[in-house]
Amino acid sequence: MYKLKRFIRRLFTPVTIMLIPHDSKRTINVKLPSIGVVSSVVLWLVGSIYVISIAIDTIEYYNMKSKLNFYMGQFVELRTTISLLEKAEAEFKRLLSFKSRDKILENVDTQINVHDAGSLDMDLLKDQIKNTVEKVAEIQQFLKNQKDIYISTPKGWPVIGRITSEFGPRENPRYGGQEFHSGLDISAATGTPVRATADGIVSFAGWSAGNGNLVVVEHGFGYSTFYAHNSSIAVKVGQKVKRGDTIAYVGSTGNTTGPHLHYEVWHNGKAVNPVDFLKNG
């Protein structure tokens, strides 16, 4: 009991704190009980620890928020990538629903494009997505190139009629004698529409001596087509035409023995047999 009283007495023993201002000779004495000084120190330590813990929590919060924003951005990018892949998959399924190569190439949608839209912070998934997207992009580019070749390749009959003279050596029907016939003569009634057999640009449209009214269309990929002896021409130089567009009308202008279309197909500067292209129609 005595020791407890003695301890309590010491707690309340006054401690004098002396303050000496630099601009005054008088000192300021402050008396505080020992317990007050100890309590102040304890409170200061507790307050300091609390402030430090709050600061640490704040820093961790902002770090966590930054990481969360990063991962949210990554998920958005991943969702975009998946969406593009789903569109590409749907497009491939649509194309494969057609039963022939020609139908597939005619219906290729060259507007759909797939790019690397980002990745998660997981290397394996990143590589898998990147490889898949690259393969899809390669397939799409291949289909686009094949479609460009397809629409530039002559296909089908330029006019409905009957072949009266084949490609190759023949006897000239007007003057006699052997000659090489570089195209096909297709008999048809005057005024029958003559149609382009592939997409292209008209490079010549006018009178050409023995060919009469002649139309020449450049298709790209080395292909050109010639349509001669027309009664009239429906296009002009520089005009873009699509396969099936009317470009002229059958006639017998130039050196002919009757109304027909003289049709030629050239590839890489050489005349080739148009029959091979009629069969594709």
From TrEMBL:
Gene3D superfamilies: Glucose Permease (Domain IIA). This is Membrane protein. InterPro entries: Cell_wall_metabolism_enzyme, Dup_hybrid_motif, M23ase_b-sheet_dom. It holds the Pfam family Peptidase_M23. Residues 180-274 form the M23ase beta-sheet core domain. GO terms for molecular function: metalloendopeptidase activity. The chain crosses the membrane at residues 35-56.
